[in-house]
Design goal:
10% strand, elongated, alpha/beta, six-stranded parallel β-sheet, single chain, 340 residues
Length: 340
């Protein structure tokens, strides 16, 4: 049965376990979070030595995994068998492996919690095995998170950690980290450890504990370009050029590409209300006014031109087109062109 991340996590946190979990998809954070919770909480610590087995797909065939799953628990309610990197199981896509797994799916050992962590992809839905998995297992059904959904997930993680975040803190995390959910979750845990429980986390806390420079970060560069603050933009680019390890060029190009894409959406929906615009471009209503100012500074034609400039810069950095200048000089030239 397909289930979402929150639904599966809610079940296991209430000590309700299914005999088989098929955790799949492009977003590894969802898979790891559920598997880690089961590994840590399905059995008491003293019972894990006899009743918990962690296997790796590259090292095991389907029959080996199922032999572990068919064993019965010793002095415990259940056994747990975790199969990490299940996408690397050599015989999973072969007739023998599929046949053995299908037979187990029809009659699983109900005293075993068998967890497959099938990362970065999904089983082809057209295959018979996919249909059998859906009938017999709890199948994780979550797609990779797009950038415009990241702020929502930041708020969800913050609520889980009992953290209160300002809108600017949410936006800064989203812009700085992007859709790396694992890193976002880890950074929020770091903030949680360092602040009293009733603190409202603002942009200053994020700058301090996440390691974002107050004046020289991707968020401030984006804002400086949008406001056509030439001096500030070039100061930031120069800082990035001297700190390329912590400010690599390609992620920066992605951030700026996303920014101008949002401005293009704003131009296409310029009659919409601020709340509607916020939903369409994937930002908090708190920041819509700032985006409107940027849209006045950049006509729709300029925005389209800038998107092309960013695409060309990306090809240059990746060596697809000729590039005889340093990344720092490329960024300086790019920022100049974007604002003129």
């Amino acid at each position: 049965m397909p289930k979402g991340y929150h639904e599966i996590l809610k079940d296991v946190k209430s000590n309700t376990y299914a005999p088989i979990y098929w955790l799949q998809g492009e977003e590894p954070f969802f898979i790891d979070s559920i598997a880690d919770y089961i590994e840590q909480h399905a059995l008491d610590e003293g019972l894990k030595g006899f009743n918990q087995t962690v296997l790796y797909g590259k090292e095991n065939k389907i029959i080996d995994i199922l032999n572990h799953a068919r064993q019965f628990p010793m002095m415990a309610e259940r056994r747990v068998v975790l199969v990490k990197e299940a996408q690397d199981i050599a015989d999973l896509n072969r007739e023998e492996g599929e046949k053995a797994l299908t037979a187990y799916l029809e009659k699983p050992n109900i005293s075993t919690v068998l967890v497959f962590c099938y990362k970065y992809k999904t089983i082809d839905a057209r295959k018979k095995l996919a249909k059998e998995l859906e009938k017999a297992c709890v199948v994780l059904a979550e797609k990779r998170i797009y950038d415009n959904k990241v702020p929502e997930w930041i708020k969800v993680f913050a609520a889980d950690l009992q953290l209160k975040l300002s809108e600017k803190a949410v936006y800064m995390l989203s812009e700085h980290i992007g859709n790396n959910l694992e890193r976002i979750h880890n950074e929020l845990k770091k903030v949680k450890v360092n602040l009293p429980g009733d603190t409202v986390v603002d942009e200053h806390h994020i700058q301090r504990f996440v390691g974002i420079s107050k004046d020289f970060n991707e968020f401030e560069l984006q804002k400086a370009i949008g406001m056509k603050d030439h001096k500030k933009a070039f100061q930031i680019v120069q800082y990035f050029g001297a700190n390329t390890k912590s400010h690599p060029v390609i992620p920066l190009l992605v951030i700026l590409f996303t920014y101008f894409t949002k401005l293009l959406l704003l131009h296409k929906n310029n009659q919409a209300s601020d709340d509607e615009l916020a939903r369409k471009i994937g930002v908090s209503p708190f920041f819509v006014k700032e985006y409107k100012v940027a849209a006045r500074n950049y006509s729709a034609m300029m925005v389209i031109r800038n998107i092309h400039l960013l695409k060309n810069a990306d090809l240059q950095v990746k060596g697809v087109t000729s590039n005889s200048i340093s990344e720092e000089d490329l960024m300086k030239e790019l920022v100049y062109k974007l604002m003129h």
